[in-house]
Structure formats: structure tokens, C-alpha cells
Amino acid sequence: xxxxQYVENAPPPPLxxxxxxxxxxxxxxxxxxxxxxLPAAIRKRFGKRLKGGDSVAYQGVVxxxxxxxxxxxxxxxxxxxxxxxxxxxxxxxQPAVVIVTEDRVTDGQFWIRQYxxxxxxxxxxxxxxxxxxxxxxxxxxGYGVGMALQVEATNQALLFKSDHxxxxxxxRRLRLPQVLSPGRVVVGHHDMGAASFRFSLEVTHRLFGCMxxxxxxxxxxx
Length: 222
Description:
The protein is mainly beta.
């Protein structure tokens, strides 16, 4: 008979750690040459794919918040469709949190942005990045409203620029004419070194100029 020796209170064997999944979705949108322009830290953030349903959180602070009177009207009117634009100037110097979650259904990403305010509950913005549409990437905010995005790379930043806005009604996708567009939206992810980055949002209009601008500094998740 073979004797088996048991060791009491022995620690369990370590669980295997899966290597990070590669994410070529943004690289494919840009192309290899434009992708290579980006700082290594940005390529790392946008080139590592989470498992379906997993999330990553970035914590930071709002460092700039400006809007003219037209931007104020736009931001508050947009609260009817989920408040996609920051609407409270008191968010300046308040904490900010961004959570990115993989969407297993659409093969895209859910984004949740939380901005503190001087009083009351923080503003929470929900959106979904979908690798679909005529430009290959679109941001859907709900209520049938979304915008198609063009992606550009520089040696300092990854930029998301609005191409056009659309509304989905009864299964049909309707492109908004330029006259009904809220303006030109540019979102930037700027590497700052030291495991931190700057998120920038700017909304401009050919008649009303820069209507809305927001910056926030975030640090990489542990």
C-alpha cells in the first residue's frame, strides 16, 4: 500500500495568471504607421484588452472647466439625453473617475465618467464605444443618439474627433444635418509621463466659437 503524506495548513498552490490579451482594435483603426507615432504609454493603455465584463478604473481631478453661454445652454439641454457634456463649472478641482468595461455583447467598451461637483451628487456620464459604423468607431450615449468618430494619432496624444451625429429611430439610423449638429467635438488622451495622462474635451461651433472645454488629469490604475 502506498502511503501519502499530507501537510496541514500548507498554502494552496498559486493560481495561474493569464497573460494580458492584445487589443488591436485601435491599432487597426489608425494603421501601423500612425499607431507607432503614439507614446508607448498610450499604446499600452489602448493596446491591452480586458476580458469580457472586466473593468479598469482611473482616478484623477478636473483641472480646467470653461463654457460660454451657448455652451451652458448646450450642456444643460443635453441632460435630456443623458448629460454627455459636463454642465457644472463647480466641477473644477473636484475628483474625477473613469471606468472602462469590456462589452461582451457588441465587442466594444462601456465608459463611465464621474465628475465631482461643488454640491450634491457627482455628474455621471455613460457612453458606449462601438467599433462599427462608417468610420469604424462610434460613441453611443443612449436615447438613440450617438456620434461617429475619426481617430488620429500624434507623437503626444490620441485624438477622437466627431465626424457626424446620428439618431436611431425604429431601427433606422438617421444622420443629422450639419445645421443641427451641436458642434465639433474633439476628445484627447495626452500622455504626461510618470504614469499619468490628460483627458481633454473641446466643443466648438463655427458661429459660437469654443463653447465648452474641460481637462482632467488621471493616473494609471495599479
